[in-house]
Amino acid sequence: MNVLLFSRYGSLGASSRVRYLQYLPYFRDQGVTVEVAPLFSDAYLQALYNSGSRWREVLAGYMRRFGALGRARRFDVLIVEKELYPFLPAVVERLLRAMGVPYVADYDDALFHRYDRHPRALVRRLLGRKIDAVMRHAAVVVAGNEYLAARARKAGADRVEVIPTVVDTERYRLLPGPANEVPVVGWIGTPRTSRYLQALLPVFEALQREVPVRFAAVGAREADFAGTPVEAWPWSVETEVSSIQKFDIGIMPLQDSPWERGKCGYKLIQYMACGVPVVASPVGVNREIVTQGENGLLAETAEEWQKALQELLQRGEAGRRTMGAVGRERVEHWYSLEAQAPRFLAAVKGAVR
Q: Which positions fall inside the Glycosyltransferase subfamily 4-like N-terminal domain (predicted)?
């Protein structure tokens, strides 16, 4: 079987890397050939994270995609990450359906809210139901959680599969060794998502006055946290696992809004795979991933966050390792590449009529 993957990004983009690219060796071992055609280049992402101009990269990406679409009928099935052309109507997706070219549409966030909750009325009117059309014309919709799956069903999708975002447990491992002299509460993400930490800065300051503790944000900009307790650690594909292995507690604060309810809890899965206990906001899929008091704690208000972090710090290394082991077992069972790769391949094969 030959597959053309219309990913959003290359390996630098987390969503494309973890939702598709990490599956490619498994697909290859099963005799499936996958050609990758990313929309945006690494240069686009670098400009995005550094607040630079992106228009040239956007135009180049749209032209590359146009060329790749010209070869679509040579493949047995297409995989489309979210949509083919952002901020354009779902014309091409409709044409693919009319031409009998099957595609799998995959979602790991509530992209539909980018349009149906856009601040501009014109965007809401023209594109508010766009993603519903993409879902409806897909042979299969793969959703990272039930919130996204419910939208696909409501849109009239023929077939919907819920497949969580996963990690490779051969890469994400528990790191036995001596504990940190001062416990590290860690977070991982991008400069754009580090805003979720801002509301917790008073909590971090209060905890540092009470107990020895460090706070690290992998992938955040140092300038965004100057003068705060948060240490900005650099991110790279090569060092992300080793950075998480230095955490004693992993955190995932979120606002409770429709966009956040569509997130897939990937940070939590990364932490748990490394045997790190977690504290998370009780938003969306976080409620499913975290079993209160077993692999982590849920916290909503600032007071709850302070209490939850205090509790895990007071448990000591042994208590945290016990909780982390439960999280690791949960990842191996459901949130691992090994567990989900056969299901993802089956969904792709099921799109071929």
A: 27-164
pTM of this prediction exceeds 0.85: yes
> Tokens 């790279």 map to which residue?
236
Q: How many CB atoms lie within 10 A of CB 87?
A: 13
Could you give the domains of the chain? 2-166+337-350 (3.40.50.2000), 184-334 (3.40.50.2000)
Q: Is 122 exposed, middle or buried (0-12, 13-18, 19+ CB in 10 A)?
A: exposed
Question: Per-residue pLDDT tens for 88-98?
Answer: 999 999 999 99
Q: How far is CA 286 from the centre of its chain?
A: 12
Distance CA 81, CA 79 (A): 7
Take residue 247 and report the two structure tokens written for it: 């955490």
Return the residue matching tokens 């992209």. 111
Average pLDDT over residues 246-264: 96
Asked whether 169 and 331 are in contact (CB, 8 A), the reply is: yes
User: For residue 186, is pLDDT > 80?
Assistant: yes
Where does 144-287 show beta strands of DSSP type E?
A: 160-162, 184-188, 214-218, 230-233, 249-252, 278-280
| 343 pLDDT more than 90 | yes
SS percent in the chain: helix, strand, coil, step 5: 50, 15, 35
**Confidence (pLDDT) at 163:** 98
Q: Please state, rounded to an integer, the average pLDDT across all residues of the chain.
A: 95
Task: For residues 263 and 282, give the distance between their C-alpha atoms in angstroms, rounded to a whole number.
Answer: 12
